[in-house]
Amino acid sequence: MVDDPSSAGRRAGAFRRHAPRPYARARVVLFPHGGGSASYYRTWAAAAPWDIEFLAVQYPGREDRYAEPVPADIQGIAAALAEELPDDGPPLPTVLFGHSMGAVVAYECARRLSAAGEPPRRLVVSGHPAPVLTRPGRVHLGTDEELVEELRRTEATHRDILDNAALVQAFLPVIRGDYRLSETYRPAPGDRLKTPVTVVYGDRDPEIHAWEAEGWREVTGEPCEFHTFEGGHFYLDEHRDAVVELLTARARAASDASAAPWLSAP
C-alpha cells in the first residue's frame, strides 16, 4: 500500500505517490541518492505523462520517517522495500531507477523481487559503479567538517544548506549513515538478473568511470545499454526532463511487451 504521509496518526510507509496517475499502464520506482529523500523526485512525478506512474522511495531516518532507525545495511533496506512494494491496484509492469546509493538499493531490490518470482521489467542505474566494483571508503568515519567538505566536493547538497550550521547538524547524522551504508556495501554472490539493465551517468562524474559502468553487464543475462549526459555526479539536475523521457520510454516498452501476448491472442 502507498501511504499518504499527510494522514495524521499513521506511520508513513516507504513509497510516495507525489502525482497520482489513476490510468497508468506502467510504473517507475525512484530510489534516492545517499542523503536524499523522496521529495527529490517530486518534480519528476509531476513531469511524468498521464500513463506512467512515478513512485518515490522514502528511506527510514529522513523527512516524515525521521524517527525510524536506518537498517544496518543496504540489503536490509532492499528487503523491506521489496516486501512493501505497492499492491493497492492492478499489477503494473515496473521499472526500477536508482541514483548513486539508490542504484545499488534498486539492484538489491530487483534481486529480491526476482527471487520472489516478480522481477522488474527493467533496472535503470545512475551514477554508480557496478556492485562488485563499489569503492570502499572511510568518509563515514571522518569528522563533521570532513563530511561537509565531501558534500561540497560532490555537490550532493545545496550550498545554502551546507552554509547553515543548524541545518547541517540536523541532517548530518543521516548523511553519515548513508555514507556508511554505501562504503560498507558488498553484494552477496547470486544468480544474474533476468532483467535488462540501463546504465546512465554524467561524463564528468568522478564517482564512476566508463569501465566501472561497463561492469553492470555482469549483473544480468539480458541486454545492457548505456547513456551518458554532460555533467558531473548530479547531472540529473540539468537533464531531468531527458531522464524522465528515457524512463517513460522504457516503462512504455515494458507495458507493450506485457500486452503483446494478449494482443496476439485469438
UniProtKB/TrEMBL annotation:
Residues 27-248 form the Thioesterase domain. One of its GO terms (molecular function) is hydrolase activity. Keywords: Hydrolase. InterPro entries: AB_hydrolase_fold, TEII, Thioesterase. SUPFAM superfamilies: alpha/beta-Hydrolases. Pfam families: Thioesterase (PF00975). Belongs to the thioesterase family. This is Alpha/beta fold hydrolase. It comes from Streptomyces halstedii.
